[in-house]
Amino acid sequence: MMTKNMVIALSRPHVLFFLLLASSLMQCHSRCNFLDENLSTTNIKGMFVFGSSVVDNGNNNFLQTSTRANYLPYGLDFPVAPASGRFSNGKNVIDLLAKLLGLPFIPPFLDPLTKGLRMARGVNFGSGGSGIRDETGSVTGDVMSLKEQIMAFEGTTLGELEAELGCGSKESLCHFLFVVGTGSNDYSFNYFLQSPPDSDADTDEKLQAFTSNLTASLSQYFQKLYGLGARKFVLMSVNPIGCYPYVKASRPMVRVQSMNRAARLFNSNLVSLVNDLPARLPHSHVVVVNAYKIIRDILKNPSPKGFTNTEEPCCEVRSMAQGGNGIFCRRGGLTCSNRSSYVFFDGIHPSEAVNDRISSKAFTSYLWSEVYPFNV
Known about the structure:
8 strands, six-stranded mixed beta sheet
């Protein structure tokens, strides 16, 4: 029977977090040979990352695709090596979240050097241009869909991790964070290519059906990872895709609103998914980071947060009229000098300063409107 104090505790997100963490630790015992036990400031031993360009840290460098960030000015402010394949001027949200967790940079799966001790703290499978649906991103060439990313994790990484840690996945994976950041490309470069905003093909019924299909597929992928041993999940919401410089420059305002409406619908479904999954996946914990709201708050009131430019990309982007696509930085092109004050680095990707704000909110915020139902 629940006491009055328990009810009060459960109404406070930070108290709820510690209650659930205690429950998780009780269910997560292992005899694994984890490395550098004092490296992490939390109970998290590493991260496995899945998704699109918002989390990709170099996998597309090894794929035949036009969606690449392996050239300057991408990575101009990255501390280790510039042009590493991150779609930003510096660190992406995964790099910054890893730092807050006391973890090193998570290596990309397709890098031949990602093996042995280097993968013992996790692996990043993210692939720029990819989506939840298999066909998303096909217009840009060879990318790894979410399904292919999870297949790579199961078919290759899992066995190597078990050999490295000296224990089975059911013992080890409950100590790792599984981060998924995908979905925006399924709208920008799939749904809205087939059903342009404000056209007869774009109806509420069609959008709701498409979104329901996306979240149903995502739920199945969560269940797949859970079956392999994953227990701690972080799900990044879709960003306000209608606010991208690429979209604003090429589409009328009514289309901007339609794309943001789609993002909000998807993100609302994510919250429902978070509420539903624990009942079907015992001892699992799923967190949604509402990057949509965090970015929208910056766009609505940028100055107090240190931003001055919310409309333009920091790097030189060629429009379609100039032979570009309005999205990616021109190779070797110019950049703004005050990169930390720009919201967007290129036509669709946030600057490191925005990524830093998202990761910080994910780690520390107690607001359900920013992280739900508790922070990372």
